[in-house]
Specification:
Length: about 240
């Protein structure tokens, strides 16, 4: 099984597990659903990667960071449940599972599962999103949109699309539901590694908000800002964010 196939399979299977957890704990508290989803998905992914790729390191949001990853040749960067809040709210579909592989300084494979939508986006082949007529659509958090995203919306004469998890937001650009995702104010490598791998495979622009490259498997796993957008909008977006 190739790394691309493994990433897609594991993200999809973790997503199916999460749907089961959601159904099982439908009458439980939102906090219980969050905790169970995070832990069970993490345990599944770690066990599967240990079995399938025993020589590779793993960086997971829910795991203890092992410094050995810094000298490893291959590191799987996973977010077992991206959008825990949305997952805990029964009926919401804007949450995701991220599975990415970093090798030799680059993201080489990745998959983003959107379990409640029945969709998994995975490298190496991701359809290019169609251009949409009308004002550019800027996807933002439904609870705390960053000021820079609002500035981009105003500069482009765009409109806002509100959504939950980072993975769902990037996926919305890949799927042609939105055109621009700008984030600033705090994220970690696992929040963006798989979404960025998928976005790059779809031919989208990806960078930090100052235009510099997104770099993974660093000592400090914080990666606080990013841009994912249609390539023809990149210059206009960076003209705002690079300030």
């Amino acid at each position: 099984m190739s790394d691309h196939e493994l990433a897609a399979r594991l993200a999809t299977e973790a997503g199916a597990l999460l749907l089961d957890v959601r159904a099982e704990l439908a009458e439980a508290s939102a906090q219980d659903r969050k905790a169970a989803g995070d832990q069970r998905s993490h345990d599944f992914l770690l066990a599967a990667l240990t079995e399938q790729r025993p020589d590779d390191a793993v960086l997971s949001e829910e795991g203890v960071d092992d410094p050995v990853r810094l000298s490893a040749r291959r590191v799987w960067i996973v977010d077992p449940l991206d959008g825990t809040r949305e997952f805990s709210e029964l009926g919401r579909t804007d949450w995701a599972v991220h599975v990415a592989l970093w090798e030799g300084g680059e993201l080489v494979a990745g998959a983003v599962a959107l379990p409640a939508q029945g969709v998994t986006l995975a490298t190496p082949t991701v359809p290019v999103p169609p251009a949409a007529p009308g004002a550019p659509r800027v996807v933002v958090s439904r609870t705390r949109p960053p000021a820079v995203a609002l500035e981009v919306k105003d500069a482009l004469g765009g409109e806002l699309v509100e959504m939950g998890s980072a993975g769902a937001k990037v996926a919305s650009v890949v799927q042609g539901i939105s055109d621009v995702y700008v984030h600033a104010g705090g994220q970690y490598e696992w929040d963006s590694a798989a979404p960025v791998a998928v976005a790059r495979a779809a031919g989208l622009h990806t960078s930090r908000i100052d235009g510099s490259p997104l770099v993974y498997n660093q000592r400090d796993s914080k990666l606080p800002d990013l841009i994912v957008c249609r390539p023809e909008l990149a210059d206009a977006v960076l003209a705002v964010t690079a300030r």
